[in-house]
Amino acid sequence: MATTTTSPTPTLHPKRCRPINTIPSPHPDPNPKSNTHMPLSLSDPMEPPPHTYGFTKFNSALTAGLLNPMSPPPPNPPQTPPLDKPSRSSPTLFEMMANEPGYSAIVVRQGTAMAATVTGPERGYIVQKRAEEMMGTLGNRFGEMGSSDLRITLRGNGGFSVGLDVHRGVLVGASRFFAGKLREKDSCGGGGGGAGFVVEIVECDDVEVYVLTIGLMYCEDLRRRLMKEDVCKVLGILKVSSAIGFDAGVLSCLEYLEAAPWAEDEEEKVASLLSELRLEGVGTSEVLKRLSLDIAAPSERIGNDNEEVLIKLLNVVLEGKDEKARREMKGVVSKMLRENTLHNDLRKESLYLACDGCLQQLRYQFLLAASRDLQDVDQIAKRADNLHWILDILIDRQIAEEFLKTWALQTEMSCAHSKIPPIRRYEVSRVTARLFVGIGKGQLIASKEARCSLLQTWLVPFYDDFGWMRRASKGLDRHLIEDGLSNTILTLPLSWQQEILLSWFDRFLNSGEDCPNIQRGFEVWWRRAFWKRNGQPERPRFQIATIENS
Q1: Does residue 491 contact residue 439 with C-beta atoms inside 8 Å?
Q2: Cα 433 to Cα 420: distance, rounded to the nearest angstrom
Q3: Whole-angstrom Cα distance, residue 9 to residue 49?
Q4: pLDDT at position 484, please?
Q5: Which of 211, 410, 449, 547 is the most buried (most CB within 10 A)?
Q6: Contact 249/170 with Cβ under 8 angstroms?
Q7: What is the pLDDT of residues 336-377, one digit of tens each?
Q8: 135: CB partners within 8 A, 6+ apart
Q9: Distances (CA, A) of 277 to 70, 145, 202, 204
Q10: Which of 490, 454, 469 is nearest to 424 (CA)?
Q11: Beta bridge pairs of residue 37
């Protein structure tokens, strides 16, 4: 593969008329022809080179006060008229990488805004200082100018550069990419092993990641060194290591990601990068096992496994003995189920199986207590609370119509209601109240017969328990329940509304606060029944006629 070799006469850039090869070699060669420059660039060939005034002008500007936020900006440097760009017969290192099978680009675009508010030479000074600090922690020989035989220059997008004095043997031994390219340079007679050999990498979004990745080639224990970094930084190192064929770095990054904890916002980044890189080997699958039970398993089997786990969680919560823990875990499970907007984690049949089990247990305990066997009467509240929780899930998933029909048919429980002390039975009426709220808010669409049957079976027991519900249930929204009951009644035919609301009117006048206040529903019925009938003109009647073509 051909590479570019600079001549004693400097190559000029067409826009700034400045030498491209302005990188000082760590060991100047008396013979200029021995210095080899390999630019690695993603920029437009016509784009001017980055800022190269150095830190001397930056320090002068700082001393003169020109970098004070309140001072005017320094004048722009004089521009030299552009000259024609000489033709280049040899490809750059980046072009060689682009044509190399298996390698896309060495440049990593992490989007990390390191010192984002600083630009130009000031930013380069900050990055250079950080690079020097990292050099002292990454390896004994990393950054040694005296023994190095290769120089790598990293140019950031902000127009700054960082130079690294490295050792050809270390890079060749650690990176498959550098090994192939540098050996190919030797075979072409380019003098790649000379002390003046320079490699330039430009358009680096995060120069620190490049410095750290190259420095890791000098470390004996990569995993221990990575423990000092966070997940996002390790992901950047992984991407650069994959691009340059730094296999030890890739493996160490995968081992770190497999063992380190992730924040919620980092999970998507990890999964996305590993999917993008398509790394071969078991390391990637081990990392992704944290996010999937079996990444090679069919989706149907994964869905069945998920359902089995959720059913087990439901049963554990339903049978738990510690009330405080049960309440907390009910909230957690409900939140997880609610966040799955597709509702494909639990089948309707599985939920109704759990619901039927709760109803049968409640019915057994309720009828047992009605027969004066109060030994396990405390279980009524627990079973009713479980049923109320499952009903919440059914309503949230809009599949509660069948339960409403089933609950409306529990006439035996309704008749036994008055035989049980109110303090033991009022939790059962919370199930009825939840159905009223669901119907009243349009969350539950049931037939007219089912709604009427619900009121006929459970309305009187609900009235009897309302006072206890209001006093004993913490966080009970009385007005929500009253509005739900009103709206449920108002969905019935007008004659049924009249029968129910007149009965309520008499009961409310004699019970007061212990009876739900559905005055709003009563007023709506009154307007429907009398005002529109007697005070307003009748609506026009329409007759539908069928006209046959002769």
Answers
A1: yes
A2: 19
A3: 18
A4: 95
A5: 211
A6: no
A7: 888 876 666 788 999 999 999 999 999 999 999 998 888 888
A8: 142, 143, 211, 215
A9: 46, 34, 22, 19
A10: 469
A11: 198
* In the predicted structure, residue 195 carries a pLDDT above the cut 80: no
Mean pLDDT of the chain: 74
Q: What is the DSSP letter of 375?
A: T
Contact 369, 380 (CB under 8 A): yes
Cα(463)–Cα(195) distance, integer angstroms: 95
Q: How far apart are CA 161 and CA 54, in angstroms?
A: 9
Q: Which residue carries 């950031």 as its tokens? A: 156
pLDDT, mean of residues 115-144: 60
* HEC sequence for 407-450: HHCCHHHHHHHHHCCHHHHHHHHHHHHHHHHHHHCCCCCCCHHH
Nearest to 58 by CA among 102, 117, 119: 119
CA-CA distance, 334 to 345, in Å (whole number)?
13
Burial 73-87 (b: 16+ CB within 10 A, else e): eeeeeeeeeeeeeee
Q: Give me the residue label for tokens 């850039």.
A: 13
Residue at token pair 């690695």: 40
pLDDT value of position 33:
40
End-to-end CA distance of the chain: 92
β-sheet with 37-40: strand ranges across: 37-40, 198-204, 150-156, 161-166
Q: How far apart are CA 540 and CA 119, in angstroms?
A: 78
Mean pLDDT of 481-506: 94
pLDDT at 513: 83
Q: Structure tokens of 407?
A: 């609950």
Residue with the two structure tokens 């250079």: 128
Q: 200: which strand partners?
A: 39, 153
Q: What pLDDT does residue 196 have?
A: 56
Report d(CA 202, CA 95) in Å as an integer.
Answer: 13
- The pTM (predicted TM-score) of the whole model is 0.59
Q: What are phi and psi of 287, to 5 degrees?
A: -70, -45
What number is the average pLDDT over the span 269-281? Answer: 87
The token duo for 333 is 């499970």
